[in-house]
Amino acid sequence: MKHKKLPILGWKLFWTLLAVSALSLAAHLVLYPSLPQQVPRQWSMDGAVNSWMDKATLPWLWALPAFFVLLFKVIPAIDPRSDSYRKSRKMWNIFSGCFTMAFVLFTWMTELYLWGPGALWQFVPGLLMAAVAVGLIALGNYMPRIRQNYTMGARTPWALANEHCWQRTQRMAGIVFVVSGILLLAAVAESFLLGSAVLIYAFLAVLLLGCVWIFVYSWLVYIGRMK
Fold first, then answer.
1. d(Cα 141, Cα 122) in Å, to the nearest integer?
2. Residue 56 neighbours by CB under 8 Å, 6+ apart
3. Phi, psi of 40 (to 5 degrees)
4. pLDDT confidence tier of residue 223, bands split at 50, 70 and 90
5. Which pLDDT value is given to residue 226?
6. At what angle do helices 58-78 and 11-31 cross, to 10 degrees?
7. Per-residue b/e over 30-67, b at no fewer than 16 CB within 10 Å?
8. What are the backbone dihedrals phi and psi of residue 36, each rounded to the nearest 5 degrees, phi first?
9. Can you list the alpha helix ranges (DSSP code H) found in the chain?
10. Looking at residue 30, what is its pLDDT?
């Protein structure tokens, strides 16, 4: 019964993540006047800038980590199935911490591009995509452990209506994410070694078709056609 009295996202972790997000935002704002009016918005795998945007957009991006920390604290508390979060409290804390720290690092890509070592930059977008791929693989392994809730996981109507269908749907979603992550890692390696982007299209196709298949599979499980 003791675990029921603990907050789903621990207060110590919550305040730590919020402080890190706030410090990152403050540092960005100090550097803001030094930034050029036009800053990169999108990069290719080789580090070249594909498009630009006005720097006035950046503060909204910099504030997102703090916003996500607040969501990670509030969502489990207001979800009608908050007990599901409480039963996997440790994993929710790990996910919240890793996601927030990764996003904080992501917000510094503009400054890294403008003032960081030029020789290093060409590898940064690829390394970022590799980190996303690892995240997909980790999420895929975590998906089968997500219990029924209304805000996280593969929340198809049929999975929410039936616990067995929920479990089967999360397992299938886990497979889709793991396969997609492996393909994305292969795409990054291909880009570094061959300078090609063929596999990135395969990754996008698998991810898109995989998401469609998750819905179809969930429905088939629900109606008893997928044993």
1. 30
2. none
3. -65, 140
4. very high
5. 66
6. 170
7. eeeeeeeeebbeebebeeeeeeeeeeeebeeebbbbbe
8. -65, 165
9. 11-31, 58-78, 82-87, 89-106, 109-115, 118-121, 124-142, 157-161, 163-194, 198-222
10. 96
CA distance 96 to 175: 22
For residue 42, the SS3 value is strand
Q: In one letter, which amino acid is 88?
A: S
- Which residue reads 């395969």 in tokens? 202
At 163, list the tokens. 């616990």
Q: Measure CA 53 to chain center.
A: 23
CA pair distance 132, 98, nearest whole angstrom? 12
Q: Do 207 and 159 meet the contact criterion of CB atoms below 8 Å apart?
A: no
C-beta separation of 126 from 188 below 8 A: yes
| Residue 11 structure tokens | 């207060």
pLDDT of residue 227: 63
Cβ(42)–Cβ(122) below 8 Å: no
Cα-based angle 142, 145, 151 (whole degrees, multiple of 5): 85
- Say how far apart CA 55 and CA 60 lie, in whole Å: 10
CA atoms within 13 Å, Cβ hemisphere of 167: 3
Q: Cα 103 to the chain's mean position, in Å?
A: 8
